[in-house]
Write the structure tokens for this entry.
Amino acid sequence: MASPTTSLSRQSVIESVLASTGGKRDDVVGGNGTGPARGWFLFAVGSLVLAGLLSLMLVVGRLPFLGWLFTDPLFFKRALVVHVDLSIVVWFQAGTLAFLGLALGPRLNRSVTIAAFALAAAGVAGLLVGALMPGALPVLSNYVPVIDHPVFFGGLICWFAGAGLFFALALVTPARTDAKALTPGTVIALRASAAANLLAMVTFIGAWRTTPDAVPSVFYELVFWGGGHVLQAANVATMLALWQFLLHRWTGRAVLSPLAAAALMAALVLPQIVMPPLAFSGTTESAYFSMATHLMRWTLFPVVLVVLGAAVIHVWRCRAELNWKDYRFVGLAGSAALTLLGFILGAMIRGSNTLVPGHYHCAIGAVTIALMAAAYDFCAKVAPEGLAPETPRRARLQLLLFGGGQAVFGLGFALAGAYGLGRKQYGVEQHVRSLGEYLGLSVMGLGGLIAVAGGIFFLLVMIRHIGAWRRDFTPVTQSLHEQRT
């Protein structure tokens, strides 16, 4: 052991390391306060990897000429549960948390952030392990499907606890003001998403406490119905935040003033405040069920259309200065087109058929393609100093593949639903009777495979960028080694 006279004090080592990395303490923990953003982005990408693999199995199981290969419908239902929870709950919340981490940066409380990460990691592990428990029953409840087993529910609770802890922290932490800062309108929309996510979690708690014992399909449908609808408002707020982020990065100007953004986000989120009291009053009351539906039907599209109109006007005014080959334009146009298609298909729903998944796959695809497009800029912002990645030349192709595939996927579902094909049926459970149902499912399968190809392309690029982040820590290791020797 080195003597005190020959060893550097811990403080002097840290100061030397800081000098080697650029001079700021935040660099030691991961790139100018971007550590929390990177951590949540890892959750987002990891969940999408798993969800994408599961979605491929689900697409194959829906194809009418291959359905006979799969004689155990529960296999698909378990896969569907995990796929939906990863691709809608974890992916959307982790993506929102990543951008919140970027917006708030070094001002976040370190201890709370670490606790949130630990709970979230335990949550994802619980979701996966719970699905493997013998005798676990999949329940395809809307918005948050579940597997009726304590390990799975332990995982779900841990995920919501970790995400909720960070959402709450994001509401009380001032936004950063350095070069990595986001526009005020973007931050306001991200905070609105955080508030809506917390409202959804409180609604889940209230529904769990007041829902009477019933068969699992009825019990969990009631528990997750109200909060699930509030989650859709949170996802829309995230999408609108990303639209503002992409428009600013593309045009160089903010599309909404802070006051306009605050007013629109208030119109989106404030009506959702009624859902927790309704849940605590009892989920069997008619107001609980109907109010959730009315809130989603009447509070989402007006705000989306106003922001979309403002975006169109903004782009039109800047049209002479814009690069129309920019991938951000593809991401924005794809997200807007899927949103409008989702609105149209949603208005056509008249029963429980595959028009329903056609509608919501367009809706969630709109949020996903916005997250994908914004992820390219995210990676550049959190990259080590001097190592910002170049945007892939084929980023436009990736976004076109995913967006186009998702649109075809939704339209195929809609076509099959127009001929009366029931939803939530897989393999030999399907009763495909007409040419229209066969055609719709075949179109759905083609679109799904194209979307999966676009998703795989995206993940390969993101994994390469994530690998480059390790270089941020190399100078620290080298400096410590040099000081000790």
Residues 18 and 24 are 6 Å apart (CA to CA).
